[in-house]
Amino acid sequence: MTTNLPIKSFSPTQTDAFSFCPRYWGFYRQKLKPKAIGYPEIAAITGSAVAAGLEVRYRTGFQTGAVIPRALTVAAEQRLQALANGQRYVSAADQDKWEAIDSNVILLLETHNKRDPFKDYTVVEVEQTGDDHDRPDLIVRDDMGPLVVDFKCKLTLKAEWIPKEQAKWRRAWQLHHYAIRRGIARFAVCLIAPHTRQGCHYEIVQVDERYAKLWQQDAAQLWAEMDFAVGLPLDQLRGNTSHANEYGECAYWSEACSHGMDPVMLANNLVKVGG
User: Which CA distances in Å does 250 have to 139, 152, 199, 253, 275?
Assistant: First the structure.
């Protein structure tokens, strides 16, 4: 597989954010987050902790002793950092989810350890940062060649929803980004779903050359727009007026749209994180 992307590129996270709403992407780039802790923040901490545990597993030749301790350390560090940033949960339901992070991390990792579909593959790379745009969780190899692997934590996923969830990822920007930029012809999304009999569900997807060319054309146009937008102030970035995503109403709706970037709203409802 050949790649031809001479222009400046952006990570899948940034690209998804810009595609959803350029102003949302602007908040992301400036490291501005809502003070109110909700499901997105809780899911992000859970996912980061599980990723840290999986990194230990695959770096140590499938040794499991340090997996959960490392994951819980990362979860604790990120919770403390969120509170130090001034973020707080505002509902009893979110507090319950916040306090359940550790138990959910353990459940996800124990499910994966029991059902790891890649234990017989040769590990090539684990969570390699690369050029900061290319961070697959894992690259493994079998007789068919290299395979890009990305893990998704699905605590509430039921068995009957697996085919629909897998179909969603077959054309996912993120996975094609990882595979195409590395010249790898296959990828797999591994759904860690503790409440299903199988536990871990994965499907190997062959990257179609024709689709790869279309992806590169789309990427070139999007990244050119993003490169131009980098120097623009927040209030000059276009806002998506629908402003809803998979978690419901966008967390920046009030500040970005309904109150028109009011500086008082921005100061009261957002915090700057990560320096």
Answer: 33, 22, 31, 5, 23
**Sheet hosting strand 145-153, strand order edge to edge:** 122-126, 138-142, 145-153, 186-192, 200-206
Question: Which runs of E-coded beta strand occur in the chain?
Answer: 32-34, 36-37, 88-89, 122-126, 138-142, 145-153, 186-192, 200-206, 244-245, 248-249, 270-272
- Cα 108 to Cα 191: distance, rounded to the nearest angstrom: 10
SS3 70: helix
Q: 123-127, 167-171, 207-211, 242-246: which has the minimum mean pLDDT?
A: 242-246
Q: How much of the chain is in helix, strand and coil states, percent to nearest 5?
A: 50, 15, 35
SS3 for 248? strand
Residues whose CB is less than 8 angstroms from the CB of residue 135 and which lie 6 or more positions away in sequence, other chains included: 11, 127, 128, 129, 178
> All domains of the chain, ordered by start, with CATH?
29-116+244-275 (no CATH), 120-226 (3.90.320.10)
* 184-194 exposure pattern, b = at least 16 Cβ within 10 A, e = fewer: bbbbbbbbbbb
Average pLDDT estimate for 160-175: 90
